[in-house]
Amino acid sequence: MSKACVVCGAAFLPKGRKNTCSPKCRRIRHRQKKDEHNRRNGLRHNGPDEPPGANRQLASIGKERRCLKCDRVFHSRGKANRLCPGCNTENERQERGHKYRPTAEELAERIEYERMKAE
Q1: Does residue 50 have a pLDDT over 60?
Q2: Rounded to an integer, what is the distance from CA 49 to the centroid of its chain?
Q3: Which of 52, 84, 89, 112 is most buried, with most CB under 10 Å away?
Q4: Contact, 10 vs 21, CB < 8 A?
Q5: Cβ atoms of 23 and 33 closer than 8 Å
Q6: H and E: helices and strands count for the chain
Q7: Which residues are registered as beta bridge partners of 65?
Q8: Cβ(37)–Cβ(56) under 8 Å?
Q9: pTM to 2 decimals?
């Protein structure tokens, strides 16, 4: 019982549940299904000038939300994403046990305070 290839339409004898006649058509069909999935889920296809390993990025930026920690507006990646990237990174550092690192301005203020205190 022969079957028509879903990519090129050629007749072939399928082994199992195959829908394509050759490895070339199989690769084309795989790319078609992947692109269809990416379109449905808001992902974009890597262009011809991008390397094959480049990350696919969201076509839609996401919903604008206010960060629960700093109250800044940011583009959320999903309904569970309630912290801006900066606050999220800070939380991850604290969870891993990293201590807070003051900025150069805060260090200068602290040094000035220590000098005034010593006098």
Answers
A1: no
A2: 20
A3: 84
A4: yes
A5: no
A6: 3, 4
A7: 74
A8: no
A9: 0.39
Report the Cα 7 to chain-centroid distance in Å: 31
pLDDT band at 11 (very low <50, low <70, confident <90, very high): very high
3-state secondary structure 38-94: HHHCCECCCCCCCCCCCCCCECCCCCEEECCCCCCEEECCCCCCCCCHHHHHHHHHH
* DSSP annotation of 4: E
Q: What pLDDT, in 10s, does the model give residues 52-66?
A: 555 555 444 567 888
Count of all residues that appear for the chain in the document: 119
Whether the Cβ atoms of residue 105 and residue 91 lie closer than 8 Å to each other: no
H helix or E strand, kind and range, residue 12: strand 11-12
